[in-house]
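Risk mitigation, structural track. In case the binding assays with FE2/S2 (inorganic) cluster fail to produce interpretable data, a predicted complex structure has been prepared as a fallback.
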Amino acid sequence: MNGEAHDRDVEPRLLLSDFIRDDLGLTGTNVGCEHGVCGTCTVLLDGAPVRSCTTLAVQVDGRRITTVEGLSHGEEMHGLQRAFTARHGLQCGFCTPGFLMTLLPAYNEAKPLDKDEIRELISGNLCRCTGYQQIVEAMQLALEEASELANLPTQDG
Ligand code: FES
Ligand code: FES
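Fallback model:
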């Protein structure tokens, strides 16, 4: 979990979302609908977004999970978080961890996406506040910054 190993015995029926929040105390992952519709509980499983409310904790035995807590480095926000802040990509913030984790693989690829491609990416995430436009703009800003960083010359030239 976010680079740290956790060794626990759990009930076979325990949901990954409950394991993350209740057993590990990582409450950044929010739970909304609890049946796979809203995307709020999204985390990365071996780098790919999954709904933690429809995944069992036992299914991730030995696997790599990233939650929203794994994004920042101490006080330093991740590029996606900075872009959401700069473009007002959130209001109440309840859905935000799910959007960030859904968008993270595309950010890591640093591949430019147009607005329709970003809308397609977030089509499984619901937000009741923003109207989505600022979220799309935030992702565009984040991708611009990510591709600039990816193209920076290295020390070796
Ligand atoms: Fe998991 Fe809504 S809480 S998809
Ligand atoms: Fe409130 Fe998305 S910011 S639900």
